[in-house]
Design brief:
Four copies of one chain form a homotetramer.
Chain A lengths: L8 H14 L12 H8 L3 H13 L3 E4 L3 E4 L3 H28 L3 H21 L1
Antiparallel strand pairs in A: 1-2
Helix pairs in contact in A: 1-3, 1-4, 2-3
Chain A binds a DNA duplex (15 and 15 nucleotides) through α3.
Chain lengths: ~130, ~130, ~130, ~130
Amino acid sequence: MNFNSKKPIYLQITDYFLNSIISKKYNIGDRILSVRDLAIQLGVNPNTVMRAYTYLQDKNIIFNKRGIGYFISENARENAIDIKYKEFTNDELPEVFDTMKILGISFADLKKLYKKHKTKKSKTHENK
Amino acid sequence: MNFNSKKPIYLQITDYFLNSIISKKYNIGDRILSVRDLAIQLGVNPNTVMRAYTYLQDKNIIFNKRGIGYFISENARENAIDIKYKEFTNDELPEVFDTMKILGISFADLKKLYKKHKTKKSKTHENK
Amino acid sequence: MNFNSKKPIYLQITDYFLNSIISKKYNIGDRILSVRDLAIQLGVNPNTVMRAYTYLQDKNIIFNKRGIGYFISENARENAIDIKYKEFTNDELPEVFDTMKILGISFADLKKLYKKHKTKKSKTHENK
Amino acid sequence: MNFNSKKPIYLQITDYFLNSIISKKYNIGDRILSVRDLAIQLGVNPNTVMRAYTYLQDKNIIFNKRGIGYFISENARENAIDIKYKEFTNDELPEVFDTMKILGISFADLKKLYKKHKTKKSKTHENK
DNA sequence: GTGGTCTAGACCACC
DNA sequence: GTGGTCTAGACCACA
C-alpha cells in the first residue's frame, strides 16, 4: 500500500480491507495482522491502524478476540459490498451524472471513456 | 448549496460559478456579487467567499477591477469547461470505474443507474 | 464532571451529553464547546474529547458546521433516548434479572432496594 | 460462555463458579477441573483460567492442595452469595436506577420488562 | 503477546 | 478561530 495524499491514511487502510474482503483475499475467520504489526509494515503509527480497525469493527467487518487479535466477521463480505455500494450510488455516481449533464457528455461518450480506461489499465499491467 | 457536505464550502462556491458560467447564466463581462454581499447571502464567512473568488481569478474565470468588483473573464466559459472536464476524466471517472470493477458492476448496470438517476431528478423537479 | 475510574473518559463525556440532551439541558441547534475548550475545561487531552465528539456525530447526536463548531442535531433527543434505552434493556437489565434469579431476590425485594436507593439519593441532596 | 462479550473472560469463569456453587452444582470439598483441563475444555489460555482460580482462592471460594488440585472451600457458598450480593447492590443496581431516572422509566415499567424477560427466557429453554 | 485508552504535541485545511 | 489527522510514546488490562 502506498498512500494517496488525498484520503486519510486510516480510510485507505479500511478501503484496502474492504476491497480485499470483497475480492476474497481475506475470508471469514481469517486473522488479520495485529495493530502493531500492520503499523510497522505500513510505516505508520499504531493509532492510525487502530482507527481503521475500530471503524471496521463498528461496521461488522472484523471482530476482536480478546488478547488474540482481529478476525474477519461472518458477514464481512456482504457488509463490505453494502458499504461500498452505498458509497458508490449515493456519493460517487450522482456527482458524475451531474457533471455529465453540465458538460453535455452523453452516455455514449461515457462508454468511450470507459473503454479507454480499460485499455489503459491493461497496458499498465503489461508493463509490469 | 449544502454546506454540510464533505466538500469545502469555498469549492462549492467555485463550483456554483463554474456551472453557472458553463450554462450561460453568467456571461462575459457580467459583474458578480461582491465578496461581502455574497457572504451575507450565503450566511458564510467573507473569507470563505474571498477564497473562492481568488481561486476563480487564478483560473482566469473572473477578474477584479480594483475598487469596483469582480467580473466574468473573456474566456471564462472555455476555461470553466476545461477545468471541469479535466477534473471529470482525471479524478471522478477513474474512481468510479475502479469501484465498478471491485463491485462487479457492468456498464449495462451503470446504464440502469443512470436512467434511475435521471428519472429521480426529473421527479424532484416536478414536485417543486 | 469528575471521572469515574472504571469507564473510559471519552465514554463518560458522551454519556454526559446524552444525559444532558435527554434532560433538555441542551436543545436542538445549540452549539457545544469546541474540542479544545472542553478539553481544557475537563483537564483532558483534545484527542479524548475529539473521540467523544466523533462518536456522537456518528450516532447523529451532534453535527459539525465546518470551521465553526459542533451543534446539537435535529433528532438528538430521540436518538439519545434510543441509545440509552437499548443499552439499558439489552445490557444492564438482563444482567440484573439473572443475578436476581441466582440470588433468589424477588421483585418485591427489588422494590425495597429501589425505595432505599431513592431515599439515600434525596438525603445526599439535602446534605449539599 | 460468550467470550466476545465486554466482560473479561477470567471474570466470566469466576462467575460460572460462583453461580454453580450458589446453586449447589458444586459442593464443599468437590475437586474442580485442573487449570490445564479447564483451559482445554474452554479453548482458552491457561493463564486466563489461572487468573480466575487465583481470584476465587483470594475470595475463599476455592483452595489449593499443592500438587493435587483445587477444591471448593468450607464457606464457599456463603462467600459466593456475599460477593454477588455486594456487587449487585453496590454496582449493578445503582446504575440501573440512575438510568431509569434519566429515561423516565417507572418501577411499573420495570415490572413489565421483568415479565418480558422471564417469558423470553422460558421460551428459549423450551426450544432447546 | 494482544488491544484500548490516553497524553503531548504537531501540522494542515478550512472558516 | 474551528476540526481532522497523525506521530511518538506511555501505561494498563487481558490472554
